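Hi all, long-time lurker, first post. I run a small reading group and we've been trying to get comfortable going from sequence to structure in the token notation. Rather than ask abstract questions, I figured I'd post a concrete chain and ask someone more experienced to write out its structure so we can walk through it together at our next meeting. Sequence below, copied exactly:
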Amino acid sequence: MDDQQYMQIALDEAKKAEVLGEVPIGAVIVYQDEVIASAFNLREKLQTTGSHAELLAIDKANEVIGSWRLEECTLYVTLEPCPMCAGAILQARIPRVVYGAKDEKAGCAGTLFNLLQDDRFNHQVEVIPGVLGEEAGELLTNFFKKLRLKKKKIKTDMDENG
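-- Answer (accepted) --
Happy to help. Here is the structure in token form:
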């Protein structure tokens, strides 16, 4: 399989999050051409800060590999990692990250900061941006559009019903 095929699996994970009302972000971790972990955002359901798709996938991959080091793995994620997730990627020693959409508000793989390639850290990551980025971005845009409409309808209903 290639980067686009693995990213498609991450997009499928993101769609699972959307069904649950979660921000649709999905992640998969590949080791020796095999998906060993997959996850999607569960922050609303679990009400924990660390319930991002990347962190959940890293935890699963650690279990499969039997180590905190994921040195021969690639992480595929539908949205550019935030600072928290970028830190976890560095700590897990993941050598390669492929992401879909840029995150203009929190992206730390090149958009706002580039924590993953900062040579002041003892580990740097190869970053491949924009793989199926249009699809990933569209999924997020549509999710937030629907969320805003829903909130607007609730507000309108409340205003009308006093």
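A couple of things your group might point at:
The chain has five helices and five strands.
The chain has a mean pLDDT of 94.
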